[in-house]
Write a structure and sequence with these properties.
The longest helix is centred in the middle third of the chain and has 17 residues. The chain is about 10% helix and about 45% strand. The chain has six helices and 29 strands. By secondary structure, it is mainly beta. Helix 3 packs antiparallel against helix 4. The N terminus is likely disordered.
Length: about 450
């Protein structure tokens, strides 16, 4: 069986029924059906089911086909998982029980589509197809606008079976390989930065798409590259990005420079070697990670590894920093080093899944308030989920803060906040440190 695209919505799924020998099973009125979805194949169906349906209560039968109705409330509490699915037929008189449908399906929840009504779950194949493209008219979806008129269900089904390249082709997704613009494992660091940036610029000029770095090997880089809205930056198998020279941020979104919010950015497959290159290079005060996102909506950062060959990141830069955000997925990553791994500033709606950290400092920092040099903004962090997080260093740090109205005589240290004339200000004292007494209103 295969769940249709929006399992979180009200959907009816047709499931063929058959006995163990493969013969079609047509239940009469003396049989009742029980549909069970389990997170663990060996889980007890009566006490550990994710959700269940029964004849007359979510299951209807026509011949040897069961129609199972899945509602939003059935899946609203599920996270990314493999569901093991079976349908049991029980004879009402004899009590005989037989399995008449058995399957499993991998579900991926997309938190960027959560609403107060339902949460969407995709099959893995559908997630590839939808996540790369986007759905016209759906304000909350990720991905790039596509040419809907040229896409058919038959095209997509065929493409999913053929692989990712075919999916992109069927969905009319604009894809450029950075090698066309001069990026190469054998190239100089400056040429690789220029080549990757040229590909990102070209995709942006065409309204968005995918930039792929596919030739296996180590790409030296010596400067920051800018990712725009509606862009997926994909690093293929065997691709490693290695810092050289003297600079700080490797990738950042365009909004970190412009002050405008970016949307629909995906950074996939990154393997970054810091190579003992760590510099406090700030696009804006407080933004200081190797991978930095500031003013961002609908961000996915998946399948990543950030480390140094000596397993010690510098104590100057965070690995990843995400600040002033909405709707973020971070999944399937590993960070090894001395400074913060994932460092969040203010924002709402995020999920961190299947993440490993071996860091001397915070493996995961949720800093609503922070040092002046550690976040460009501060405020609430809300609506987050963290699951399958393993750390061998410091675990999770949550930092809060507050402010009082400014008045002469108050004492402040660097980074303190105060309110004056309806605006919030932070204390910036040259040379850092030190308790200072206020005398002039900001």
């Amino acid at each position: 069986m295969s769940f249709s695209q929006y399992i979180g919505d009200s959907k009816t799924h047709a499931i063929p029924l058959a006995t163990d020998d493969g013969a079609a099973f047509t239940p009469g009125s003396d049989w009742t059906l029980i549909f069970t979805a389990k997170l663990d194949k060996l889980a007890d169906a009566d006490t550990e089911a994710a959700f269940q349906k029964a004849s007359g209560a979510g299951i209807a039968v026509t011949g040897s086909t069961a129609s199972v109705r899945v509602l939003p409330e059935d899946t609203k509490d599920l996270t990314a998982a493999t569901l093991y699915i079976d349908i049991q037929a029980q004879h009402l008189t004899t009590g005989e029980v037989k399995t008449v449908a058995l399957d499993k399906i991998k579900l991926i929840r997309d938190v960027t589509r959560q609403t107060t009504v339902s949460r969407t779950i995709y099959t893995e194949e559908e997630y590839v197809a939808r996540g790369a493209k986007g759905d016209k008219g759906d304000k909350g979806d990720q991905g790039n606008p596509g040419n809907d008129a040229a896409v058919t269900n038959a095209n997509v089904v065929t493409a999913v079976a053929a692989g990712p390249a075919a999916v992109r082709s069927a969905l009319k997704i604009n894809t450029l390989d950075a090698s066309v613009y001069g990026a190469s494992p054998s190239g100089a660091a400056a040429a690789n930065v220029a080549g990757i940036q040229a590909a990102l610029d070209a995709v942006n000029s065409q309204g968005g798409g995918v930039v792929a770095i596919t030739a296996p090997g180590t790409y030296d880089v010596n400067g920051t590259m800018r990712i725009y809205s509606n862009t997926t930056l994909f690093h293929g198998p065997g691709v490693t990005i290695r810092k050289t020279g003297s600079f700080g941020i490797v990738y950042a979104n365009d909004g970190a420079w412009t002050g405008n919010t970016d949307v629909n950015i995906k950074l996939i497959g990154l393997r970054l070697l810091v190579n003992n290159v760590s510099v406090l290079q700030e696009i804006t005060t407080g933004l200081r990670a190797h991978i930095s996102f500031f003013l961002i909506q609908n961000l996915e950062f998946r399948d990543f590894e950030i480390l140094d060959p000596t397993h010690h990141l510098s104590a100057i830069q965070f690995a990843v920093q995400i600040v002033s955000f909405e709707d973020v997925i971070v999944a399937d990553g590993r960070i090894v080093g001395n400074k913060d791994g994932l460092h969040f500033g203010p924002g709402k709606r995020f999920r961190v899944s299947r993440y490993y950290a071996d860091t001397y400092d915070d493996g995961l920092a949720l800093n609503a308030h922070d040092w002046l040099s550690s976040n460009p903004s501060f405020g609430d962090i809300t609506d987050g989920v963290i699951d399958q997080y393993v750390t061998e260093g410091k675990g999770v740090r949550m930092m809060t803060g507050s402010w009082l109205p400014w008045q002469s005589g108050n004492q402040y240290i660097r980074g303190d906040a105060t309110v004056s004339a309806g605006k919030i200000y932070r204390s910036y004292t040259a040379g850092g440190g030190g308790l200072r007494t206020a005398s002039v209103a900001p």
